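JOB MANIFEST
job_type = single_chain_structure
chain_count = 1
residues = 183
[input]
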Amino acid sequence: MSKIVMRFTGVGGQGVLLAGEIFAAAKIATGGFGVKTATYTSQVRGGATVVDIQLDEKEVFYPYAIDGQIDFMLSVADVSYQQFKDGVREGGTIVIEPNLVHPTDEDRKKWNIVEIAIITIAKEEVGNVITQSVVALAIANTYTKALDEKVLIDTMLSKVPKKVHELNLKAFELGKKYALDSM
């Protein structure tokens, strides 16, 4: 596998940092190298957040994603989408929450914009909006094929309380289903 660079954006409290942490930890569990670098505004809840994830078989020496080299981005908030979208390489894939993120016609020409109602899926189909980070995790992995699904799920389960394991497994399956349906 060659290097995969992903970016998740949202606002504080939406779980994008947790999703990045799970990806990096899962890659490390396979013997590879995973780095998660988070940036967030001073408004921890409600301010723009971004987490860049680099997964590679070789050691990662620079922790920050280089703009123009990001393969995949997932965004669940317009403020952070607008602020961080230009880091995605031309032709890269950006998955957006269509109820909250508003790409321009130019954006749609430059990138492969995919609309998946991540928050609605978590809230209405899983039954708990907090699972949106796991829905996003499954979507990102389905698109990038970054990691073995079992390793990613096992890592995710190790990072969430046992009492919500079933909900998160349901969230993962739904995220994967919607990603496959959108391809």
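[summary]
The longest strand covers residues 48-56.
The longest helix spans residues 165-182.
exit_status = 0
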